[in-house]
Amino acid sequence: xxxxxxxxxxxxxxxxxxxxxxxxxxxxxxxxxxxxxxxxxxxxxxxxxxxxxxxxxxxxxxxxxxxxxxxxxxxxxxxxxxxxxxxxxxxxxxxxxxxxxxxxxxxxxxxxxxxxxxxxxxxxxxxxxxxxxxxxxxxxxxxxxxxxxxxxxxxxxxxxxxxxxxxxxxxxxxxxxxxxxxxxxxxxxxxxxxxxxxxxxxxxxxxxxxxxxxxxxxxxxxxxxxxxxxxxxxxxxxxxxxxxxxxxxxxxxxxxxxxxxxxxxxxxxxxxxxxxxxx
Length: 279
Hints:
The chain has 279 residues and is of the alpha/beta class. It has 4 domains: 3-72; 75-156; 161-232, Immunoglobulin-like (Sandwich); 244-279. The chain contains 3 helices and 18 strands. Helix 1 (3-21) packs antiparallel against helix 2 (33-72). The model is unreliable at 1-5, 11-17 and 19-24 (pLDDT under 50).
């Protein structure tokens, strides 16, 4: 205990002892009869008078003690706050552990003291501790420390650049846009389409490589993408050959008919020439 506090405490103890020891009972055996009664009454009145005089002094002592304690307490306004870095949204409540470190000079040497939460200071979090946004933090000194520090940290939207998309299987071409629903995960948590992200597609009609784009919404930001293959429909190939066959057959038949006509004409002409030569 500092010297001024010891002095105040000693004075208060002396005053209290004087009021408790100076009572009629202390002199009860020193007088008899009426003289004893008179002495006790006089002493009681004197004790009450002393107590009345000491009352303001004791009150002043209590006030002085409180003032002295306030003066002796260390203000945390200059303390270094650690542990309040920005954090990424993941759907859970954020209450980071706060550490205070304060410098002091003792015996001419600079020392660093680590304060203890719940003993040297208390922490209060204000605001939404789950969704993205700013969380306000109030740190208040306790015990041998006084003062207040106002600070905070930010919960950032989840970045989908760090998300993964489950493999998308091949799809058979249908002549319509193919839009499979992806399974998107971030930090082991499956995200919800329409809540955490939206999806767009490109090159997703004909055979080839299609692209699926995932863009963060709500509590998520950033984007990622995946690809999948669109392959030909085997049934469409068979149906195509069957559809072409009649046209091929018709063309072949037309060619054959033309050949027959031409051949017949040549034969007829040749016979006619022979008859003329015979005449």
